[in-house]
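Q: Sequence in, structure out?
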Amino acid sequence: MAITKRRKEAEAKIDKNKLYSLSEAAGIVKSVNCTKFDSSVDIHVRLGVDPKKADQAIRGTVTLPHGTGKTKKVLVLCPADKEAEAKAAGADFVGLDEFVQKIESGWTDIDVVIATPSVMPKIGKLGKILGPRNLMPNPKTGTVTNDIANAVKEVKGGKIAFKIDKAGIIHASIGRISFEPVKLAENAGELIQTLIRLKPATAKGTYIKAVSMASTMSPGLQVDTKSV
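A: Exactly. Output:
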């Protein structure tokens, strides 16, 4: 695919051999953005773990201090007596059987699925559809809970879930290109500090191996791990 003029100009502003501090990267990522829309700013953290080992398969949640800049569509799967609570908390979709059927038919136009423990046996069969999209409710990410109201409010307030991939990398959105650099840096820092707290006792050697930041369709910036 041909490199656009805008992309070439952006790449010319970056020193590919330099490791930028987190705050520097957050500022430069705005100046090298190649899109005309309010694109997502993502961070990628390569960890010194073996994802194949159960105790090193890092996953969890973090509440970004400035949110993601995106309004997340939340589906709550729950019994009838919990529906009013979910709706009052701001859930976009609430119910059970009708949504199980919709998902089985291929509907996944949602960002987060929250469920009560009591309905998990009924929605377990949805794992093959929701799992690959990181939408399957899980107690570790706080999306299987009886405290539906709090779970919905946290997601709407900037809570995100993350999960290490097969290559040992965590990918996460930390905001939009319209954010001020300090907000991007603080969101990124919060995620990285959360990852550090989750370091497995069995992980040996360097834990935070590499960090990069980039906006959608734009060149990435390598971040000095010492700055985080």
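The two ends are 35 Å apart (CA to CA).
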